[in-house]
Amino acid sequence: MRCIVEFEITGSCLRLPLAYNSLVQAFIYRHLDRALASWLHERGTPLGKRQFRFFSFSRLLGRYRIDNGKIEFSGPVKFHIGSVHEEILQSLVEHLLQDPEVHLGDNLCEIRGIEVESLPKLSRPMRVRTLSPITTYSTLKTAEGKKKTYYYAPFEADWEEQLLANLKRKGKALEWTEEQLDALDGAHIRPLRVDKKNLRIMKYRDTVIKAWSGIYELDLPEPFFLLAYDSGLGSKNPQGFGMVEVMGSAAKG
């Protein structure tokens, strides 16, 4: 399930730091039922040492300019949010409709509208574009024994392998059967229109993250496609990474 939340700016503009993902994430948690927000933030859905929260959101969409290290939006601003857990979106929508005057960072805004997105017509393969960039990585050890994060690029074979493995782990966390998980064999996720200009070096709080925007081809079984569509591709989805929108069937061009 996915929704589009649209704000009306109360002041002259919506002024945020360039690294605003944590502010949008905090906004989402703040407008959920307290018990649900606590479960989602503290626990989520465990799989071994990992925890999946199964939601993601897009970049903020609207007219903007960059000024002195800040981003300033003018006019209406919207973002997409999706989750495999419908109760998360239902709680968010209920809270925003009950109290439409909200803060995003230090900015006062008013909810202009909330739209439930229609499910796209699905086929294999599908062409998608990023609404928030995709990131996937491994934690390695240097010769000195220090931990180092290696972020993969779409042009590396390991990038696709990492994304498919991540999808399978998400399916396991949701307790899918082995037969359902095996359906991912032979699937692929490939860059179509991606080059070095699509690299996004972003900060989430104090962490520097390398991620990639662009247009991709997804050849996934329908349950896995919907899992990626609702909760994001790759890693760090609840921090605002990995959301895509459907452009159409890649087979039709």
What is shown here, in short?
With 253 residues, this protein is α+β, with helices and mostly antiparallel strands.
Task: Describe this entry's structure for a reader.
The chain is α+β, with helices and mostly antiparallel strands. The chain has two domains: 2-116, 2-Layer Sandwich (Alpha-Beta Plaits), CATH 3.30.70; 126-252, Alpha-Beta Plaits. Helices cover 25% and strands 40% of the residues. The protein contains six helices and 17 strands. Strands 1, 2, 5, 6, 7, 8 and 9 form a seven-stranded antiparallel beta sheet that branches. Strands 13-16-10-17 form a four-stranded antiparallel beta sheet, covered by helices on one side. A two-stranded antiparallel sheet has the order 3-4. Strand 3 and strand 4 form a beta hairpin. The two termini are 26 Å apart.
Give the oligomer, counting copies of the same chain as homo and different chains as hetero.
single chain
CATH topology of the largest domain: Alpha-Beta Plaits
Structural domain tally? 2
Q: Helical percent range? A: 25-40%
CATH class of the largest domain: Alpha Beta
How many E strands?
17
List segments where confidence is low: pLDDT < 50 over at least 5 consecutive residues.
none
